[in-house]
């Protein structure tokens, strides 16, 4: 991993001072594919060796990638929604959402649980989060979040479940870029998450929120969009404050965790609404 990160840092150096939005618009395909390869397990090897140049620019496409993840999930679920009971369909949807992303954010949630819920110093908590092995706190965090998602998704009517599968992963990836806008990077050395931080992260976050809101209005309603926005802002706000107090900022793991927590909050908000 250190060798990979160093290689990515070298390839990103050429565009370090460029605005990520301008770079994304100048190289839309390359930056979109960089985001797609990072956030999913879809095998698209074309020019993958240049991904390091476009990590910052790829942030612009995170909400869109979330929408595409939802689209990939909807078809299999739609084929099963009238065949299986709603609890079984909800589990299938959860498996697909996690599988398309390679369980990337669930791993971050587990690591964040181990670090943030430990009664240790900032330095020790960051060390714990680097450990690939999950402890008790990480497993408890996973269980609670997955149970919450299951309860929310299984309570949705079939038609609303299918539409929600577009919105939930999109909101989760929007939460990542919003969290990056609110928090500095917590680690001082190398780190994969640091490669995504850009000089115009605030503008990227605003565009991501607008995209997520507009799509939610088109798919559901203005009322639903307001509920989703409130869920995103409350979740990201509280979790970001916790990360800042405990760690001094965000890490790659906490960005994965905020995605999962936001997906849970949005699923609950849609179930309640």
Write the layout of secondary structure elements.
Layout: H1 2-12, H2 20-26, H3 28-39, H4 55-58, H5 62-80, H6 86-100, H7 104-116, H8 122-130, H9 136-154, H10 158-182, H11 201-219, H12 222-247, H13 252-272
Helix pairs in contact: 2-3, 5-6, 5-10, 6-9, 6-10, 7-8, 7-9, 7-13, 9-13, 10-11, 10-12, 10-13, 11-12, 12-13
Helix content: over 70%
Kindly report how far apart the N and C termini lie. Answer: 43 Å
What order do the SSEs take from the amino end to the carboxyl end, as H and E? Answer: HHHHHHHHHHHHH
The general outline is: globular
Mean pLDDT rating: 89
**The biggest beta sheet, please?**
none
Total number of strands? 0
pLDDT under 50 segments (min length 5)? 1-17
What is the alpha-carbon Rg in Å?
18 Å
Measured by DSSP, the beta-strand proportion falls in under 5%
User: What is the total number of structural domains?
Assistant: 1
Which structural category fits the helices and strands? Answer: mainly alpha
Report the total helices.
Answer: 13
Describe the structure.
With 273 residues, the chain is mostly helical. The protein has one domain (2-272). The protein has 13 helices and no strands. α5 (62-80) runs antiparallel to α6, α6 packs parallel to α10 (158-182) and α10 packs antiparallel against α13. It is globular and about 50 Å long. Mean pLDDT is 89; it is low at 1-17.
């Amino acid at each position: 991993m250190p060798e990979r990160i160093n290689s990515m840092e070298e390839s990103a150096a050429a565009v370090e001072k460029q605005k990520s939005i301008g770079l994304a618009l100048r190289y839309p395909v390359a930056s979109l594919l960089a985001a797609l390869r990072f956030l999913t397990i879809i095998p698209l090897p074309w020019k993958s060796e240049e991904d390091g140049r476009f990590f910052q620019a790829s942030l612009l496409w995170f909400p869109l990638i979330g929408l595409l993840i939802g689209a990939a999930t909807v078809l299999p679920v739609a084929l099963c929604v009238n065949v299986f009971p709603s609890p079984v369909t909800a589990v299938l949807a959860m498996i697909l959402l996690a599988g398309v992303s390679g369980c990337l954010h669930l791993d971050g949630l587990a690591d964040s649980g181990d670090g943030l819920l430990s009664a240790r110093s900032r330095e020790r908590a960051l060390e714990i989060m680097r450990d690939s092995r999950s402890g008790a706190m990480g497993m408890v965090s996973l269980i609670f979040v997955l149970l919450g998602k299951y309860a929310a998704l299984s309570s949705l009517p079939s038609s609303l479940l299918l539409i929600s599968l577009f919105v939930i992963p999109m909101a989760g990836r929007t939460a990542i870029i919003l969290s990056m806008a609110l928090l500095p990077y917590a680690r001082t050395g190398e780190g994969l998450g640091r490669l995504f931080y850009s000089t115009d992260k605030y503008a990227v976050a605003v565009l991501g929120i607008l995209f997520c809101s507009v799509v939610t209005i088109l798919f559901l309603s203005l009322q639903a969009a307001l509920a989703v926005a409130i869920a995103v802002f409350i979740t990201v706000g509280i979790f970001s404050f916790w990360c800042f107090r405990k760690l001094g900022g965000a890490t790659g793991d906490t960005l994965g965790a905020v995605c999962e927590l936001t997906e849970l909050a949005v699923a609950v908000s849609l179930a309640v609404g």
